[in-house]
Amino acid sequence: MAMRKTGMRGVVTLMVLTLWGTLAQGQVRDAMAMPVVEEDSVMKHIVELSNERYEGRLAGSLGYDKAADYVERVLGRYGAHCMEQRFNIECNEVENCKFNIYVPGSKEKRIFTLGNEFCCAGMTGRGYVDAQMVFCGYGIAEEEMDEYKGVDVQGKIVVLLTGMPEGSWLPQAIQQHYTTLRDKARVAEAHGALGVLAINTSSSCLSDEVQGRVYCGELPHLATFPILQLTLDCGRELLTGEKMGLDSAMAAIAEKKAPMSFALLKKAEVDVNAIYRQRAVTANVMGLVEGSDRRLKDEIIVVGASLDHVGMQGETCLFPGADVNASGVAAVLETARLLTQEQYRPRRSVLFVLFSGSEQQYMGSRVFVMNYGKMRKVEAFINAQNIGCGDSIVLLGDNRYPSLWKIAETRDSANHGLIHHSDEATNPRGDARAFDAIGVPSIVFTSLNGLQHNHVPSDIWENIDRRMLTGATQVMVETVRELADGMYRGRTPKSKALKLIE
């Protein structure tokens, strides 16, 4: 009996020691799991990627290719196995553009500056136009609201407003039909116009700031139809001394729910030189860190951000994209650095992806989901988007994936307190939408009230809020580390990748 008792005690002791050893290993691993984000390490990537040498990282351009090479070199230095996922994308590089206005009979011209008072629409056509201008409100030509009725735009340049009238009363179908500049430009061209000057009414930039966009609507391309986008202040100057001022015209349209179209006394001279390619080559950059656990290494955590931006036009109009979205890329690269330190390897595999084509309906993430051969092994997607400006960090995805969201929220609550809590449930957005569409649990790190430099030239590294950037990156690193090492379980049941694009 004594021997049996001693034996049982030995078994119990062995079990306790084994459990203690396991816990101790876990504690050691936990201690190693929280490396500290270095501000200089994150900032150096933002400073680099917002440099003029990358020419605003337009997808399909040489500038983007240089940026892709840079992030691939960085991931390679960290020990990731790098790959590229190439695909075709629409690309329009504006080499130069001139825009002047004058009163017929006068020798004086008002010369506007590219990048300061106007820029070209992302998919502008090329060509030279010298013609009278006609103001056509929001450029709508429908039975409910025909702003081309009663004015002749044949052989002229149409001046119109982006967006829809304030408090729009128009049916949703009409609003959707006139969403993009290509939509509005096609209507103007069908009425005989030779070009469009679109006055930017967006509230996401200042009245004296140009705002770049790549996506302008669906094909076909209007190859010889120039489309310029003017600042609100530039639009006001255009209509000064005319039948109505800009603000009066906008207010009258909203109040009377009727067209306020009229011909201008002034004429405009537009000269656009752009190189258009419908099928330019671009690529997502991927870096794989293989897991160390033989059971878990087949499971993959994807960490990603958008690498491309809206480019550069001529020599005076650069959109650096420091916050949008070099900040997200920098967070991904810093996460890769801290998850590949010598003393640590994640148990699950981690795939770092920098997407191209985000400025064209997040095309790169859709291409990734459709073509990545191991999508059924992806257990979660962590996305960083614009985390360098704003009031605080917002974490999107609790409505769809509360358990995943809670991991990040807990990491923040325990150590940082940076995340803004809202009573409204949120869904993933941006690049995460493609993952969400096939049931991959996804959360997005982004900012609250952080769009003050959205697609404008002032999006420079000097305007980055370093405290918020490093704090958000720290929470992201800790979240990814827990997903790669902990008891997290993703999709149940597994879902197949869907064909999202043709």
Describe the structure.
The chain has 502 residues and is of the alpha/beta class. Helix content is 31%, strand content 23%. It has helices spanning 2-32, 39-49, 62-77, 172-177, 181-190, 232-239, 246-256, 322-338, 363-371, 402-415, 432-436, 466-485; strands at 81-102, 110-112, 118-120, 127-135, 157-161, 195-199, 227-230, 262-289, 300-306, 312-313, 317-318, 349-355, 378-384, 392-396, 442-448. The strands form two sheets. Strands 1, 2, 3, 4, 5, 6, 7, 8, 9, 12, 13, 14 and 15 form a 13-stranded mixed beta sheet that branches. A two-stranded antiparallel ribbon has the order 10-11. A hairpin with a 3-residue loop joins strand 10 and strand 11. Helix 10 crosses helix 12 (466-485). The longest helix has 31 residues, at 2-32. The chain is elongated and about 80 Å long. It starts with a helix and ends in a 17-residue tail after the last helix. The model is unreliable at 1-31 and 494-502 (pLDDT under 50).
Mean pLDDT: 91
Which class best fits the helix and strand makeup?
A: alpha/beta
Care to count the β-strands?
15
Helix tally equals 12
| Approximate helicity band | 25-40%
**Gyration radius, in Å:** 27 Å
- Counting copies of identical and different chains, the oligomeric state is single chain
Biggest sheet: strands, sense, closure?
Answer: 13 strands, mixed
Order of helices and strands: HHHEEEEEHHEEHHEEEEHEHEEHHEH
Overall, the morphology is elongated
Low-confidence blocks of residues: 1-31, 494-502
Termini gap: 75 Å
- The portion of residues forming beta strands comes to 15-25%
